[in-house]
UniProtKB/TrEMBL annotation, chains A, B:
InterPro entries: ATP-grasp, ATP-grasp_carboxylate-amine, ATP_grasp_subdomain_1, PreATP-grasp_dom_sf, PurK, PurK_C, PurT/PurK_preATP-grasp, Rudment_hybrid_motif
Description of how the protein assembles with itself and partners: Homodimer.
Keyword annotations: ATP-binding, Ligase, Nucleotide-binding, Purine biosynthesis
GO biological process: 'de novo' IMP biosynthetic process
UniProt GO cellular component terms: cytosol
Entry annotated with the keyword Lipoprotein: no
SUPFAM superfamilies (UniProt xref): Glutathione synthetase ATP-binding domain-like, PreATP-grasp domain, Rudiment single hybrid motif
Gene: purK
Reactions that this protein is recorded to catalyse: 5-amino-1-(5-phospho-beta-D-ribosyl)imidazole + hydrogencarbonate + ATP = 5-carboxyamino-1-(5-phospho-D-ribosyl)imidazole + ADP + phosphate + 2 H(+)
Binding site for ATP: 107, 147, 152-158, 182-185, 190, 213, 266-267
Protein name stated in the entry: N5-carboxyaminoimidazole ribonucleotide synthase
């Protein structure tokens, strides 16, 4: 697959959440149709997609039919079972590629990869068992944070070690899953770069955004971020280095800690990213269209920012604010159409144009 | 129906073309689901809508089931058969209301309505038959233009009278349909106002756009339009007068000729309008979301414009330009996902940010 996809082609999306939903709308804007593959019933993405397959990731027949219907397959989350990818890839291309998934599915692999690229990361140690944890605590110290190697998101799969007494029970919280101990980094703030790379190697980055988390979940992203000109350049160079090393096709999110010693890579996500939602109201081409352009082999958009924006997530009971936000000037609501509001569930976001 | 619709409610849309498609995406952004009713197979709107009914407008059972599924019904075109509206309205509200449809479905009714409001329109005369045509030509003169009272769009259903010799055969071209003769207006340019009114009577207008037509089809809309401050005020007042007179709920397009004697109303469209597509890239809330907000009883967006935009339609073979447009900076493509490219068919549009 080297030619750009023609309008009318079908893009498959693994995962039917809000990211798949916004990818589907962006794909439609370029004349593509979308086919969502999602085990859950009535996923948000299906409301704005052309076709839906409801099946488990081990349903080979469903995966095969899905892959045959799609000209290219992409995904909205990184924890897709390897076997499912094998079935799909035998039939149609997956973009971004397997290597990006292999690395980002495992925190230890990801940290080793970033370090080998010469990028700064927080101190870390492999924690396969209790003995290794004791050793890691000696090396890295406390406070530190124990994270499962796989399947963590939005603060899940993490235990914070604040004192020696936390160490003994820390592994219990992870139910025996292999883990990584990470040292704390003294950072002034966190930024993220939403970067894209096309199949011909062209790279385009959106302006870095400044992130605020609450309870382990992204609360807001503000552009422009507080960064010096040289920090801004560094952020883009770091993202480009990662994209090129992975021979990446699509949009990638890179979270960075800003410290006096430079930018430290927190983590990468091989997909569109919550901290890039501001691009929907600040750029001619948003992160979702940028991703679709890349996976479809279209030229990337330039990603220039023409407005200052604050993106705020609407989580759980934040939905009660919607009637008020609807009355605000210069506020764009983006709701996800989820049937049930739950504490901690991302229900939507609002982009406020501040200048 | 007086309370605002809650997210999760279903909005029915009569018509599955590009306007229905963009309405559906806007509705999803506010957390609504859409149900499209369209006689044609595989309509563009269905690609981004939650549900589709494929049935004719005289299929009472299908209309009934559709209406029962919808909390409110709106439409993307004005020529919906009255009987279909009767079936739907017995079950669920239709917004904008029947009066707006009754008036805009018939050029003669529309012109009388506008004139009775005290607005300027081009000279016109009722032409039920050949005798009336001869009389109308004496009164209005030549050049003039003969238009069917009903079902005209994009230059269809029109015969231009350039000389006396055109008169004899003019009615043949309309196949006996009741018609209106319109005099030509000497205008410098055409503008349109995309205006909205909510159920509580609040009115919001987007900045007027300047339209260029080619072969009877809209070619481009440019904002800002060339208008003096007082012309701009007049345009908005005219639109508001029409909205209030119709007790209108939703977005309405008003086409105006700019003349030394003031603004003359060309025609009105009780729906989102091609000349309002620029709002997708120049405003926090576009005409599609504005329409959905109005019909859902939500507060209207303020419609402020934060960019200069030129919207250009992509018609028929213009689709060949898409690969080039995709490489342009500050150009947003909006393609409609139509299976077949035909001469004169609207296939998409591009919004170019010019400042």
């Amino acid at each position: 697959m080297t030619d750009p996809l023609a309008t009318g082609a079908t893009i498959g999306i693994l995962g039917g959440g809000q990211l798949g939903r916004m990818l589907s709308v962006a794909a439609a804007r370029l004349g593509f149709t979308c086919h969502i593959f999602e085990p859950g019933i009535a996923p948000p993405a299906a409301q704005v997609a052309n076709r839906l397959t409801t099946a488990a990731y081990d349903d080979t027949a469903a995966l095969t039919a899905f892959a045959r219907d799609c000209d290219v397959v992409t995904f909205e989350f990184e924890n897709i079972p390897t076997e499912a990818l094998d079935v799909i890839e035998a039939i149609t291309p997956i973009r971004p590629g397997r290597e990006a998934l292999r690395i980002s599915q495992d925190r230890l692999t990801e940290k080793n990869f970033l370090q080998e690229l010469g990028l700064k990361v927080a101190p870390f140690a492999d924690v396969p068992d209790a003995e290794a944890l004791a050793r890691a605590v000696r090396d890295i110290g406390i406070p530190s944070i124990l994270k499962t190697r796989r399947f963590g998101y939005d603060g899940k799969g993490q235990v914070r070690l604040s004192s020696e007494s936390d160490v003994a029970t820390a592994l219990d919280g992870l139910a025996g899953a292999p883990a990584v101990l990470e040292g704390f980094v003294e950072f002034s703030h966190e930024v993220s770069v939403i970067a894209a790379r096309g199949p011909t190697g062209e790279v385009a980055c959106f302006d870095p955004g400044e992130n605020v988390h609450r309870d382990g979940i992204l609360h807001s992203t503000t552009v422009p971020a507080r960064l010096s000109a040289s920090q801004r350049t560094d952020a883009v160079l770091i993202a480009a280095k990662i994209l090129n090393a992975l021979d990446y096709i699509g949009v990638l999110g890179v979270e960075l800690f800003v410290t006096p010693q430079g930018l430290i890579v927190n983590e990468i996500a091989p997909r569109v990213h919550n901290s890039g939602h501001w691009t929907q109201n600040g750029c001619s081409i948003d992160q979702f269209e940028q991703h679709i352009r890349a996976v479809a082999g279209w030229p990337l958009g330039d990603g220039s920012r023409y407005a200052d924006v604050v993106m705020e997530n609407l989580i759980g009971a934040d939905m009660d604010k919607v009637p008020h936000i609807a009355r605000e000037k210069d506020a764009s609501l983006h709701l996800y159409g989820k049937a049930e509001t739950k504490a901690g569930r991302k229900m939507g976001h609002v982009n406020r144009i501040t200048r």
